[in-house]
Design goal:
Helices cover about 60% and strands about 5% of the residues.
C-alpha cells in the first residue's frame, strides 16, 4: 500500500462520515478514515488525516466543540470507556458544520458496523457557541489583515452560520465584515 499524496477525503466527505453518527471524536473520525483508506487499498499518513480534518474545520464543513463531562458519556458507561481510550481529543467532538454538504464516500455506509460507535446527538447550543466564537475570531483576523478574499468568504458564510447556529446572533460580525470590505483600498 502507498500513502496518499492528495487529501484523502474532501470536507464534505468528512462531514458525511461524521453525519452518519451525529458527532464523532477526532480519534473516531481518524479510525473511520483509516478503515475507508484500507478499503481503497491505501495507507493514510497521520499528517494527511490531520490536514483533512483541519481543512474541513477551516472551511466550516465540520464544527469542533468541547463536550462537557456529563454529556461525554450520553449516560452510557461503555461510552465513558470509549472516551477514555480516545486520548487527548476525548473531550472534543466534531459535527457537520454550516458549510457542509455531507456526502458519503464509497463504503462509508459500513462504518457504523465496523467502528461499533453509537449515534450521538449534537449538543447544538454548545456547538453553536464554539462556532460563533471561532467565526468571530476568523472575522476579526480577516478584517484586521484587510484580507478581502477571506472577508468575502466569511461574508458568504454568515448566512449559513446564522441558520446553522440560529441561537447565536452574528449580525455584528456581518456588519464588521461589510465595514472592513468598504474600508479596504481598491486596486
Amino acid at each position: 500500500m502507498t500513502a496518499a499524496a492528495d487529501p484523502p477525503f474532501d470536507p464534505d466527505e468528512l462531514a458525511g462520515i461524521v453525519d452518519l453518527f451525529g458527532a464523532l471524536t477526532p480519534a473516531e473520525l481518524e479510525r473511520a478514515l483509516s478503515e475507508l483508506a484500507f478499503k481503497r487499498g491505501t495507507d493514510l499518513a497521520d499528517d494527511a488525516v490531520a490536514a483533512a480534518v483541519d481543512e474541513a474545520v477551516r472551511s466550516y464543513a465540520l464544527v469542533r466543540y468541547a463536550r462537557d463531562a456529563a454529556a461525554a458519556a450520553d449516560g452510557d458507561p461503555a461510552r465513558d470507556a470509549t472516551a477514555a481510550e480516545d486520548g487527548p481529543g476525548d473531550r472534543t467532538l466534531l459535527a457537520p458544520g454550516p458549510a457542509a454538504f455531507p456526502t458519503l464516500p464509497p463504503n462509508a455506509e459500513d462504518l457504523p458496523h465496523i467502528l461499533a460507535v453509537d449515534s450521538r446527538d449534537v449538543d447544538r447550543e454548545t456547538a453553536a457557541e464554539a462556532l460563533a466564537e471561532r467565526f468571530r475570531a476568523d472575522a476579526a483576523r480577516a478584517a484586521s489583515a484587510g484580507d478581502d478574499a477571506e472577508i468575502r468568504r466569511l461574508l458568504d458564510l454568515t448566512y449559513d452560520v446564522a441558520v446553522w447556529a440560529e441561537s447565536i446572533d452574528i449580525d455584528d460580525v456581518r456588519d464588521r465584515l461589510d465595514a472592513a470590505l468598504d474600508d479596504s483600498p481598491r486596486a
